[in-house]
Design a protein that fits this description.
- There is one protein chain.
- This protein has 13 helices and no strands.
- By secondary structure, the chain is an all-alpha fold.
- The protein folds into two domains: 30 residues; 217 residues, Orthogonal Bundle (MetI-like fold), CATH 1.10.3720.10.
- Helix 4 runs antiparallel to helix 12 and helix 8 packs antiparallel against helix 9.
- It starts with 7 loop residues before the first helix and ends with a helix.
């Protein structure tokens, strides 16, 4: 008897599954290591750095208490939440309007404008730091959270315009024409018809930008370190400040707790909104 032939798809899955398992362990274990190390004492971390915390000695929840009470992580958390929320809202609002205009209105200047926005994805952030520094200083926004929000919005717009313009381009033109025949203005068509249909694309941009901005360090370090009190610091900057100020007496349990405070919201947001992310990506792929 001849053996049944296996399909190329099943052969690919048989080959790819072990690689995906290895990749999951490679990326997932460091996260788990940070989380359970935040519940250990310094001595336990040095004696057995990769072992699970001992329940006999008790879980060191005091590491989190020290992070919030002594190191001011509650202020860093609030600052990060405000900055990221305002920045993501600004990116979605401006990106959606610009993406819709570039995808629906045809003009000689439309292709050059689109490529100008797209060039923002290709320019290294280190190149624009010096001009941004002087611009923020001239506007009186240096070492302030509103100034950092403006920088985040500007840095996130190219990605948002690239994604949303492609998403709006795939929406049926008949919807636009039907709304136009019903007497809707351009603003009514955008806000009442097109924008609700673009929710998967908006969710995709929002999730990606939240993950990027929540852990962003470079811009925060360049534009907020002039504040001597540290009250304007974000989570990533506050974590670095804590590690630097400790000098040679680093409390590793406290440091792991600070890392966990940064990581846990990202995991929660991603798990809660992963269906919206997949829906947004697959919707764009199917419609494209």
């Amino acid at each position: 008897m001849t053996k049944p032939s296996t399909s190329p798809g099943s052969q690919f899955l048989r080959f790819a599954f072990p690689l995906m398992v290895v990749y999951l362990i490679w990326t997932g274990f460091p996260l788990l290591w940070v989380l359970y190390s935040s519940l250990k004492t310094d001595r336990a971390i040095f004696e057995s750095p990769f072992s699970l915390p001992s329940f006999d000695q008790g879980l060191q929840w005091t590491n989190y208490a020290k992070a919030f009470q002594q190191e001011g992580f509650q202020f860093y958390f609030i600052n990060s939440f405000l900055v990221v929320s305002v920045s993501v809202f600004g990116i979605l609002a401006l990106g959606a309007m610009a993406g819709y205009a570039l995808s629906r209105f045809h003009h000689k200047a439309t292709p050059p404008l689109f490529w100008i926005f797209l060039a923002g994805l290709m320019i290294p952030v280190q190149i624009v730091v010096i001009p941004l520094f002087f611009q923020l200083r001239s506007l009186g926004l240096l070492n302030s959270l509103p100034g950092l929000c403006l920088v985040y919005v500007a840095s996130g717009l190219p990605f948002a315009i690239f994604i949303l313009s492609g998403f709006f381009r795939t929406l049926p033109k008949t919807l636009y024409e039907a709304a136009k025949l019903d007497g809707c203005s351009e603003f009514q068509i955008f806000f009442r018809v097109m924008l609700p249909l673009a929710r998967p694309g908006l969710a995709t941009v929002a999730i990606f930008q939240f993950i990027i901005l929540w852990k962003e360090f470079f811009f925060a370090f360049m534009f907020l370190t002039g504040d001597p009190t540290g009250n304007q610091s974000t989570l990533a900057l506050g974590l670095a400040r804590m590690a630097i100020n400790s000098q040679y007496k680093t409390d590793y349990g406290l440091l792991f707790a600070g890392l966990a405070i940064v990581i846990i919201p990202l995991i929660v947001i991603y798990v809660a909104l992963q269906k919206q992310l997949v829906k947004g990506i697959t919707s764009g792929a199917i419609k494209g």
